[in-house]
Amino acid sequence: MPSVDPDQAIGREPSVLPKAAIADLVAYKPPLSPMGSKRVIKLNLNEGALGPSPKAMAAMTTVAATMHRYPPVEASGLIQAIAERHGVDAQRIVVGCGSDELIQTLCLAFLEPGDEAIHTQYGFLLFPLAIKVAGGVPVSAPDDGYTASVDAILAAVTERTKLVFLANPNNPTGTYVSSDEVRRLRANLPSRVLLVLDAAYAEYVQRKDYTAGIELVEETDNTVMLRTFSKMYGMAGLRLGWAYCPKPIADVLYSIKPPYGVNYPALAAGIAALRDTEFYDRSLAHNTRWMPWLQEAFRKLGLTPQPTVANFMVLTFPDTPGKTAKEARLFLASRDILVRDLASYGIPDAVRLSVGTVEENRALVDALRVFMTRNARDGDSV
Ligand SMILES: *Cc1c(COP(=O)(O)O)cnc(C)c1O
User: Fold this and answer.
1) In a designed cystine with 261, which of 68, 97, 127, 380 is the match (CB 3.0 to 4.6 A)?
2) What is the pLDDT at residue 381?
3) Does the structure show a pLDDT above 70 at 7?
4) Which backbone phi and psi does 162 adopt, to 5 degrees?
5) pLDDT digits 0-9 by tens, 70-115
6) Backbone phi and psi for residue 53, each to the nearest 5 degrees, phi listed first
7) Nearest CA, atom 3, ligand 1
8) Per residue, what are the HEC states of 281-323?
9) Closest CA relative to residue 103, chosen from 261, 232, 260, 233
10) What does the DSSP assignment read for 127-189?
């Protein structure tokens, strides 16, 4: 066999091609998030403001000595702990390496090549990506402003529709669809369509007309709810999520998932995090206090914070040169404050940012005050 000189191979047609469905995929590149000792204020990934629960950190270290063992998902007690905390049936819980893995697994399990899956206009970018990886066809349903439209989703249904993804609350917009509207969606979708409710931010929502979807999962045989430990529980780095499913769907997911997708430290930390209600209450109180504080401060600076029920918001900037969203993002980055660019989501005049610690929130507002009050001419130097 002639060997290929890697340098010469560059620029040539590759010998091996990926399957056609994924040939034109652009990777979901997580935005810049430097590691290390430099103090950076990271408000760009919607992570929990207060870090992880101290009890979860302690539990994680207790399993260090058993890292030579494969993780005992069934025996760990995590599924039982989720079932107890949420009052749900343990048999229908599927745990995964973040809810990202579960989104991918659902697509792989339910989409035949060419099947359509609906996501919303300003919906989570991983939905169309996972749909394409599975060989499906993503179909975007227009939003009503920044909120998902049940009518638009229903209008997008065709003979080939197999899945509907609804992030509720939605990322990146922070808006939600009421439980009555979600019910209306389910009732009017064909029964062959699986409805996936991604409730990654459910813990933060303080609205009486919101539900994450547990009842709907239990009342129907074609609805799945996804949850994560990445946001309120502050465990994004450990990768832990779960799905609540009708039993036959849970069985399908378990049949194709990698058996050891959830790591040992995540199992231990997850159990401890679920039991640490003091940390949970503190995190919720922090968000409930500081979200309105930030919004009010932004309004005073002449900016437009969009309504949100989660731990992050869309913040709209003027289109005046020197004061645009892009310039603000670069200005903040030059001061080691990271916020999320929304151009890739089709919202170029805004950034997305999450609630941080008290100190971080103040630093953000101080920096934006400088940005908004500086001379337009200073803009050239950023
Ligand atoms: C952050 C987020 C998730 C969580 O993903 P993990 O893989 O569990 O970290 C899921 N869905 C949405 C819409 C999110 O914003």
Assistant:
1) 97
2) 47
3) no
4) -120, -30
5) 999 887 899 999 999 999 999 999 999 999 999 999 999 999 999 9
6) -65, 135
7) 200
8) HHHHHHHHHHHHHHHHHHHHCCCEECCCCCCEEEEECCCCCCC
9) 261
10) HHHHHHHTT-EEEEEPPBTTB--HHHHHHT--TTEEEEEEESS-TTT-----HHHHHHHHHHS
**Is a pLDDT exceeding 90 seen at residue 124?**
yes
The full set of domains in the chain, from first to last, is 31-49+278-373 (3.90.1150.10), 54-275 (3.40.640.10)
- Could you tell me the two tokens for 336? 């080691």
Report how far apart, in Å, the C-alpha atoms of 231 and of each of 122, 196, 255, 302 are: 20, 19, 27, 29
Q: Is the pLDDT of residue 346 over 80?
A: yes
Q: How far is CA 176 from the centre of its chain?
A: 14
pLDDT computed for residue 375 by the predictor: 75
Length of the chain: 382
- Mind listing the pLDDT tens digit for each residue in 170-223? 999 999 999 999 999 999 999 999 999 999 999 999 999 999 999 999 999 999
Characterise 346 by phi-psi region: left (phi > 0), alpha (psi -120 to 50), beta (else).
left
Query: What mean pLDDT value characterizes the chain?
Result: 93
pLDDT for 241 equals: 98
The tokens describing 195, both together, are 């409805």
Question: Going by DSSP bridges, is the β-strand pair 194-198/340-341 parallel, antiparallel, or unpaired?
Answer: unpaired
Pocket of ligand 1 from Cβ distances under 6 Å: 46, 98-100, 124, 167, 171, 198, 200, 228, 230-231, 236, 241
d(CA 196, CA 227): 11
DSSP-based three-state secondary structure for 244 = strand
